[in-house]
Amino acid sequence: MFKKWQDKRWFKIVSSKYFLTGLPFAVWMLFFDDNSWLMQRELQQEIDELEESITYFKTELEQDRVKLHELKSNPAAFEKYARENFWMQRPGEEIYVFEFPEED
Predict the structure, then answer these.
(1) Is the pTM of the predicted complex or chain greater than 0.70?
(2) d(Cα 48, Cα 42) in Å, to the nearest integer?
(3) How far apart are CA 63 and CA 42, in angstroms?
């Protein structure tokens, strides 16, 4: 049975000592080593997620800077922000806060 395969080129390559030692080494490096391909893929996915969060926070930071500049330069905007977010009131005013039950 092996006689007819011994003349084939692929059998000579697969049965060579270099292939037989290189194949377990390649499998070990791809799947079982600490720096395996699977670990590198997971780390790259984590890097991609962190880069996305960096861009998100950069845009949020820029929006906050614009809002802070607006609040510092415009007293009416500052008063509006304080009244809406901190329920501040002028003397003689009453504030009513309506809370709606959350639906599950």
Answers:
(1) no
(2) 10
(3) 32
